[in-house]
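Re: that chain you flagged

S.,

Sorry for the slow reply, it's been a week of failed gels. I finally had a moment to sit down with the sequence you sent. For the record, here it is as I used it:
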Amino acid sequence: MVDYIIFLAISTSLFALFGLGLNLQWGFTGLVNFGHVAFMTLGAYTTVLLSLKGVPLLLAALLGAVVAALLGLVIGFLTLRLREDYLAIVTIGVGELIRLVVNNQDLPVGDTWTPGAFGVQSYPIPLSMIAPNLLIKLVMIGLLTLLAGLTFWQLWRWIRASQALFVQKKVGSKQEFLSHLIIGIVFALIGVAIYISGAIALYDYNPKAGLMLILLLTLAFVFWRLEILVRSPWGRILKAIREDEEIPKALGKNVFWYKVQSLMLGGAIAGLAGAFFAWQLSAIYPDNFQPQLTFDTWIMVILGGSGNNIGTILGAIIYFAYDALTREFLPKIVSLDEARLGAFRIMVIGLILMILMIWRPQGILGKKEELTLGK
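Prediction finished late last night. Pasting the structure tokens below so you have them in one place:
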């Protein structure tokens, strides 16, 4: 059970990080990106290939994020001066193009060249080869404890802010307070489960627990910086571009350059997620980077609410909770073979999305006044 919770925590955190990049591009800037997996592919392969050449893992992951950001720069210069639907067409094409190039191109794996279709294996993974002593284990558990404490404190502040609006009897504040309270309790319960499992696995030392700790710290840092950015003047300009780019243009803002910056930063975050994706898999193949990953992430962002970073994390939690529960319990309820069962699970989540779009098109935590789906 501990190992399974750690696996779910890694998967959820990984796609929450990946989704934060997409949410910046679409939720805050209004850029429709159907090829977000292209950034993840570049980040994963750059990190892995550089680490096999002896580059330190942290530097390799950062360089992977830089390469992904450069892809955003290229796509931006090619498409952002055109109509916005061109961006959607180009990004989905670029995602498939990069996957097919990797699949058919020889790659410099170590000192030899290996066909891309054979994949890349046996590359370094953070904290996988160490045998930590008691002091290092306690330091890692302490970092996990600090992260859990900060998370619970932020959840408490978030719920108190909603309660303050409820006390002031703002319009819609009661519904918002109750939803935030329920979500806060769910987050807290999940956080307790992850903390207990992580502490046990770190003490007994499971390398996957070490990877989970690094990923959670990275996710927390990226979330913190994004929250600061989107509340800054830069972030307010992105929201203005999303709503009506003619207004910031009239105020003298370089709308094209702001869009490029959003595309590059979102791509860099996705490239960083690609490094963790490769480390989680332990071996990567071109078919690991199918377009389905992009559309799964769109589901997470839409579920949680576009333009809301907490909503993106919530969407990732709901998605993987649904995935885990249906894998475990659906075969006991529905008598279908494995192939049809997989199709049925996809059909059900599609139905859930349709109901959500009718009932609450802005997503669970999205704001209706910031809705961009109707643009």
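What I noticed first: DSSP finds 13 helices and four strands in the chain.

Talk soon,
D.
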